[in-house]
Design goal:
Structural class: alpha+beta
Helix content: 40-55%
Number of domains: 3
CATH class of the largest domain: Mainly Alpha
Largest sheet: 4 strands, antiparallel
Number of strands: 7
Shape: elongated
Order of helices and strands: EEEEHHHHHHHHHHEEEHHHHHHH
CATH superfamily of the largest domain: Intergrase catalytic core
Strand content: 5-15%
CATH topology of the largest domain: hpI Integrase, Chain A
Radius of gyration: 38 Å
Length: 408
């Protein structure tokens, strides 16, 4: 609290001055007050120099001699003129405006920071407004042409995008720049319960917002999804793999149109999208390999996967021309076959099984990484020593029945 300055101080007869004494210079003013004090029964004179600091607060400094107070006032006003100290006197509306501005600033920020931020906001390019529905339509159309890897998105991927984003459009009938993090978080909680679903939805929205940002529909800087408290789930479970006996039952339960898919996933470890994009011409029965081209691989890198003897046996009866698997939805028949075989199905179980058994059979993580299109670190972390070489040998010896061979 500022000390109260007594009024009606009598003139100093020795100096011929009246108090309060105001020292005025071009860059500001300073005021010297005179007090009569008593201490221990002895009366003495005290001079106080008053000025406003940069926060608009009045500060005081005491002197026993008027000349010392005057000298300090002169020094401070001179330094103020050179910009060396933060001392000034503000009056009326200007002072109130200054105090209000200081009170609004976050801790550690200055008025200069605020002015610079305001100037940046007014000089940066304005975002081109667009409705969420129009943005999503343009985004989906772009995905039909090509994805980040340079190839058109698969039918399954586009259908998934359309389904998820159609729900987003239904809720957010507004401009994309008006969508707030709180609205997104509340919406995800309703439409995507569970950590995995929530994370997948956040990833998709982040892709959409970045796409909007690149096309000038959102300003540069943080995205609305960046502040969400939704993170990628960390699984501590081992990959879900099947036993050789379960594989034999599962393959026997597949429809003829799904057998090549199941065999390629189980004995070559190809991903779902890679199999759906695969053509029979890319399976070289003569040279003994499968070519996963850069345009069809998830990692956009070409690789050759060995055509193992057991896989050749499963594929031979189905050799044809055109797509190996022309089904747009493979999840449903897989789940149906797993249910018929009495298997608790886990996503990517066939690919996970292949990698696990292949590592056990070869004892060579780097080689399996090349075949599977994964990094050695990923395979070493998740698939090493899950099964024994003996069980791996049984996996790669699962043969089709006579009925299966004649299925074509």
């Amino acid at each position: 609290m500022n000390p109260k300055v007594p009024r009606g101080i009598p003139n100093n007869p020795e100096a011929g001055l009246s108090f309060p004494h105001v020292v005025t210079r071009r860059h500001g003013t300073a005021t010297i007050y005179q007090y009569q004090r008593t201490k221990g029964g002895v009366e003495y004179t005290e001079f106080k120099l008053a000025a406003f600091d940069s926060a608009g607060r009045r500060s005081f400094r005491s002197f026993s001699n008027f000349n010392e107070a005057l000298k300090e006032a002169e020094a401070r006003l001179a330094a103020l003129g050179q910009g060396l100290v933060e001392v000034t006197t503000l009056h009326g509306p200007t002072r109130l405006d200054y105090l209000n501005a200081i009170g609004l600033l976050p801790l550690g920020r200055t008025l200069t920071d605020a002015v610079n931020a305001l100037l940046r906001e007014h000089t940066k390019p304005k975002a081109d407004p667009i409705r969420v529905s129009d943005l999503v339509a343009a985004f989906l159309h772009a995905k039909e042409g090509r994805t980040r890897s340079g190839r058109p998105a698969s039918d399954a991927y586009r259908r998934d995008l359309e389904w998820r984003l159609s729900r987003f459009v239904e809720t957010f009938q507004m401009d994309i720049s008006d969508v707030s993090p709180r609205q997104i978080e509340d919406w995800i909680e309703k439409v995507a319960p569970g950590p995995v679903n929530a994370w997948n939805m956040v990833r998709l929205l982040r892709t959409l917002f970045r796409w909007a940002q690149k096309r000038g529909h959102l300003p540069s800087g943080p995205l609305p999804t960046d502040s969400l408290d939704i993170h990628k789930p960390v699984s501590t479970e081992a990959p879900g793999i099947l036993t050789p006996a379960q594989l034999k039952t599962l393959l026997a339960s597949l429809t003829p149109s799904m057998v090549p898919y199941g065999a390629l996933a189980a004995f070559a470890g190809l991903r779902q999208a890679e199999i759906q994009r695969l053509d029979w011409s890319e399976i070289s029965f003569d040279r003994g390999h499968i070519e996963v081209t850069a345009a069809k691989a998830k990692t956009a890198g070409r690789r050759l996967v060995p055509l193992l003897p057991v896989l050749r046996t499963w594929l031979e009866p189905y050799r044809a021309t055109g797509p190996v698997c022309d089904l747009s939805n493979v999840a449903k028949p897989l789940l149906k076959a797993a249910k018929a075989a009495g298997i608790a199905w886990k996503r990517n179980a066939l690919r996970h099984s292949y990698i696990s058994y292949r590592v056990a059979a070869l004892q060579d993580v780097s080689r399996v990484a090349l075949e599977a299109g994964n990094s050695p670190a990923m395979i070493f972390k998740h698939y090493r020593e899950l099964v024994t070489p003996e069980t791996a040998a049984a996996w790669f010896d699962v043969q089709p029945s006579t009925k299966s061979k004649n299925a074509k």
